[in-house]
Amino acid sequence: MSPLTLLLLQGGFLVLMWFFVFGVVYSLRADLFGVKVRKLPEPMASAPAAPAPVAPPDAVTTQVKRPAAPAPAPAGGLATTDTVSRIVITSGPKVGLELPLGTEPLTIGRSSESGLVVRDDYTSSHHARLVLWGNQWMLQDLDSTNGTTHDGVRVASPVQVKVGAPIKVGATTFELRK
Fold first, then answer.
1. In what helix (H) or strand (E) does residue 24 lie, and over which residues does it extend?
2. pTM (2 decimals)?
3. FHA domain spans which residues (predicted)?
């Protein structure tokens, strides 16, 4: 083998080794410090409600007004702040755990910085996030390796969460409940 061929092979091997080293460093950095997270757009301000018509003072009403009772949340309805107050883990290592939900976003992942820490091999450090957007709970996948499913469908963009619908992150399944 000529010395020039041997030199080119050595140089090519050295370049290949450096690509491998940079790939490992990038992977470790992304796993330790997470990836950039896309932010949800700000909720649009709702238009003010039209004023209710006022009856003339001399009009006689025969109906008795009763205070309205709050309607129960339908099963499978959309999760709003009125219909959801906690997150319940239904399967996985922490089955039975219940966490109260506030108004702050809840990050789910392996990282100790997450609000719900899930320690399994199929969960990313920053896997998914529950965000209150207006009055509606939204589920957002944070570009996790194995993905997040809501009601059996893989989450590609932020989706509205249904009450009682299973949300799967890694080997853990949970749902939002009243």
1. helix 3-33
2. 0.56
3. 106-155
